[in-house]
Specification:
Length: 95
């Protein structure tokens, strides 16, 4: 079964830092065979809260998704976000 990262950004305080993070994070995602399915874009909220950004990344399996998140490369990218965004990040197994 595939593995997915679901990141829901509740607040973005520094767009430039988010862009810097995105470039570095993409390198890690590619290394672990991840594929961006959703990267922001238009959205319609039918129920609940409208968040400024949602990202969905698909990996070949849950193990790859977890290894990518825990990798040195991704954690270096993740450090860039600290203090600049508030988000929820989950790794989920799916079809």
């Amino acid at each position: 079964m595939k593995g997915y990262w679901i990141a829901i950004y509740e607040e973005i305080h520094n767009v430039e830092k988010l862009k810097e993070y995105a470039v570095k994070a993409k390198e890690s995602v590619t290394k672990f065979s991840g594929k961006f399915i959703v990267r922001g874009g238009k959205n319609i909220v039918n129920e609940g809260i409208k968040y400024p950004r949602t990202v969905v990344v698909e990996f070949p399996d849950l193990d790859s998704a977890t290894k990518c998140y825990n990798s040195k490369e991704y954690q270096e990218a993740h450090e860039i976000l600290k203090g600049h965004v508030k988000r929820s990040h989950q790794i989920i197994e799916g079809t």
